[in-house]
Amino acid sequence: MNFETIIYTKNTSWAKVSLNRPEVYNALNKTLLEELLAAFREVENDENIRCVVLTGEGKAFSSGQDLKAVGGDIKNVPFDDIIRNQYNPLITQMRTMKKVIICQLNGVAAGAGCSLALASDIIVASHEAYLAEIFINIALIMDAGSTYFLPRALGAYKAFEIATTGRKIYGEEAERLGLANKSVPASDLENAVMEFVHYYQNAPSKAVGLIKEMLNRSGGMVLAEVLEMEALYQKEAGSSSDFAEGVMAFLQKRKPDFKGK
Fold it and tell me: Which residue, 63, 115, 127, 146, could crosslink 142 as a Cys pair with Cβ 3.0–4.6 Å?
């Protein structure tokens, strides 16, 4: 598949998706959002790919929505259509696909770009990169899922502060707060990301995917519902060939060779 605004690179068991509008700091327009959705669907349908790295070309991850792309009539911007038809399908795809998404946060992730980063499963940030919910700076509210992701990562009070001030959360603070898994100097970013890639491309992918789905669902459940979900999903995990391999490797005192099946 040929793309105009992203770079899609497939390796043996993992893929890399790079936002590729560096001249506008990877601002998000309709074409880019559609191509991201198509790329993630391709990842989901390729049984050989077990994780995907999401990053940005140039100095930025993404500066957020391309305001020039919404038209010049500020009083009649079709916010609901843009969100429902461009952002929501992408964020839903990212959260429901069972492949691991590792965000290589190489620079600014602002507004909807921040939401895009937060929709990933793992975030590895450079010290110089930052997350910023800058919607408030133009009197808008958060969208593209940040209203869901922020309080779950931070709690209500910190989420409110960050959402209503729009302040920059640099890599090291993001790690301390729980908005990033790891923060490293920019020179070490790629190596730090590859450590996660190496792990997940050899992990029991079916179990990892089930865990992702369960964590997504558990936030809206009471304990009894979670316990029942665990029983059902454990039965599914236990039917995998990776489970049999894991048990055999344990008994034979060797490293398991998981196939993701």
Answer: 146
| Rounded alpha-carbon distances, angstroms, from residue 214 to 104, 168, 205, 224, 236 | 24, 31, 14, 14, 12
Do 90 and 191 reside in the same domain of the chain?
yes
Full domain range(s) for residue 219: 205-252
pTM: 0.93
List, in order, residues 6 or more apart from 103 with CB less than 8 Å away.
53, 54, 55, 61, 117, 120, 122, 123, 124
Residues 51-97 pLDDT 10s: 999 999 999 999 999 988 776 677 778 888 999 999 999 999 999 99
Structure tokens at 30: 């309709």
Longest CA–CA separation in the chain, Å: 68
- For 151-165, how does the pLDDT look when each residue is reduced to its tens digit (9 = 90+)? 999 999 999 999 999
- pLDDT value of residue 110: 97
| Number of residues in the chain | 261
Position 72 scores a pLDDT of 67
**C-alpha to C-alpha distance for 58 and 55, rounded to whole angstroms:** 10
What is the distance between the alpha carbons of residues 14 and 6, in angstroms, rounded to a whole number?
A: 16
Cα→Cα distances 57→17, 22, 104, 192, 215, Å: 10, 6, 11, 18, 31
Q: Are 240 and 204 in contact (CB under 8 A)?
A: yes
The CATH number assigned to the domain holding 81 equals: 3.90.226.10
